[in-house]
Design brief:
Strand content: 35-45%
Number of strands: 33
Shape: globular
Structural class: mainly beta
Distance between the termini: 41 Å
Largest sheet: 6 strands, antiparallel
């Protein structure tokens, strides 16, 4: 009998769900735009079995993929496990076999050497496949219509690195998917691969290089000429794992780097520029672009670590005030003769994370950004905000051209999951479209799907779609037009 621990990662709104389901025509309020036709995929960590060693962090749950098929003014729901090798082995055994988050030393002997992916961080559609992504392993691919698992993607053996990013980018000029893989030659190594995948799913580039040090490289940016990679000291080591510490710890004594890696086949280590700045925390990336010799990179920057479950490497207590992040622009100049940043500029005083753009303009200077906002001044009647524990209680839109900001508060007993932009049409101007996102109804232990006019969020959702089951706190998701994957209306 499954007995999950009575700890924050497994109780309250984060109680394991473990539900595969098909529900046609979800009940809704408001009007679902007729022009909205496609699928929003998102993923939540959802443990199949209680943790092997009594407790674990939320980020180690098995991947559960949700699809909202929106068509003809209605929404159909489908949810399936990402059936990784880990999931299959544990399902057959009827219990957990793999141990703590990214620590193979805690696994049972019978699974030694197996791929440990939980496929629980992002759901991304490309080349006719649904990619269930976890950055410590190769991608898992699924059929986007049936949502059956197809298997691990190594591009017919062409991929020689061991890992594939959780945050791929699409270069819309070429149609290629751009990716990295960190710890590419093995756990805690400083080897990184930069990859490009053609629209037909063929791996057309894999370039190896070394980072300044091993750390979590969760996200990155692209421009037409460069991969832009920030190196922030959420560091790990075999010594930490052997000591039973969490895989990552944040080291406030180490510098931060921004790597500018040319997007070419013949790149060498000497071709990479590493710009250096003082310590900070930054995880997710809004966008990057080039302007002459300068490269611009917009991220959400905090003074200190945002993740209490990856504690300070030197034992300092978690500082929630310093862990609040703000949209910030980093600028480096490739014509300079040193490694210093040209500028670091906070773009808003709104505390925010989970940044999103109109992805058709990735790598170009963009006007619009959407975020999850952390507004601590709003009334809070029930705690519970995200998989990481932060209170995400507002949707935030920033117009970077005019400086105008819009905010929509979800109320004192709800919190929000990552927004996703949907263009009104393939050739619509930037920002013309909708935002879709999941809302956690904390007091009712259930979830809603919200649909907003992307440029008019202040007036609230156009439609609120009621999900009759509780979705756990999720991580990332993406939209695809139904016609692109043969998803019938």
């Amino acid at each position: 009998m499954a007995h999950f621990p009575q700890t924050p990662s497994f109780t309250g709104f984060n109680t394991p769900s473990r539900i595969e389901a098909d529900i046609a025509d979800l009940a809704h309020e408001g009007t679902i735009p007729d022009a909205l036709s496609g699928a929003f995929y998102r993923v939540q960590p959802d443990p199949q079995f209680p943790p092997l060693h009594g407790d674990d962090i939320s980020f180690n749950g098995d991947g559960m993929i949700t699809r909202f098929h929106i068509h003809d003014g209605q929404v159909d729901f489908r949810q399936r496990w990402a059936r990784t090798r880990k999931w299959e082995l544990e399902h057959a055994a009827g219990q957990a076999l793999f141990g703590n988050y990214r620590n193979p030393l805690t696994d049972l002997p019978q699974v030694a050497g197996e791929i440990r992916s939980t496929a629980n961080t992002n759901a991304f559609v490309f080349a006719g496949k649904l990619w269930a992504l976890k950055e410590d392993s190769p991608a898992l691919v699924m059929d986007p219509v049936s949502m059956d698992t197809l298997g691990i993607e190594t591009f017919g053996g062409a991929m020689t690195g061991q890992t594939f990013t959780a945050h791929p980018k699409i270069d819309h000029a070429t149609g290629n998917m751009v990716a990295i893989g960190y710890a590419a030659s093995g756990l805690c190594t400083d080897d990184v691969t930069y990859m490009e995948v053609a629209p037909d799913g063929t791996l057309v580039r894999e370039v190896w290089f070394k980072a300044p040090y091993y750390c979590m490289m969760h996200d990155f940016g692209i421009t037409p000429d460069y991969l832009v990679l920030h190196i922030v000291p959420s560091i790990g080591s075999w010594e930490r794992l052997e000591a039973g510490k969490p895989h990552f710890g944040f080291d406030t004594t180490m510098p931060v780097y921004l790597g500018i890696i040319p997007r070419r086949d013949d790149v060498t280590q000497a071709d990479i520029r590493w710009f250096r700045r003082d310590n900070c925390f930054a995880s997710h990336v809004l966008n990057a672009w080039q302007d002459g010799s300068t490269v611009h990179f917009v991220t959400c920057e905090a003074k200190n670590n945002m993740f209490p479950f990856f504690p300070d490497a030197h034992g300092a207590p978690f500082n929630p005030h310093e862990g609040i992040s703000y949209p910030t622009e980093w600028v480096v100049d490739l014509s300079s003769n040193d490694d210093s940043f040209a500028a670091i500029t906070r773009l808003s005083e709104t505390a925010a994370e989970f940044p999103r753009i109109d992805d058709r303009f990735a790598g170009c200077k963009t006007r619009h950004g959407w975020f999850l906002e952390m507004d601590m001044a709003r009334p809070v009647a029930m705690r519970g905000g995200s998989a990481g524990g932060l209170l995400m209680n507002c949707l935030f839109h920033k117009d970077f051209e005019t400086g105008a900001e819009q905010h929509w508060w979800c109320g004192p007993v709800s919190s929000l999951q990552e927004p996703c932009f949907v263009p009104r049409s393939a050739d619509a101007p930037e920002g013309q479209g909708w935002i879709v996102q999941v809302c956690n109804r904390l007091d009712e232990a259930r979830s809603d799907l919200l649909i907003f006019d992307a440029l008019d969020i202040t007036n609230g959702p156009l439609a609120t779609v009621h999900i009759p089951i509780r979705l756990r706190f999720g991580l990332h998701g993406n939209w695809v037009n139904g016609a692109d994957i043969g998803l019938a209306a």
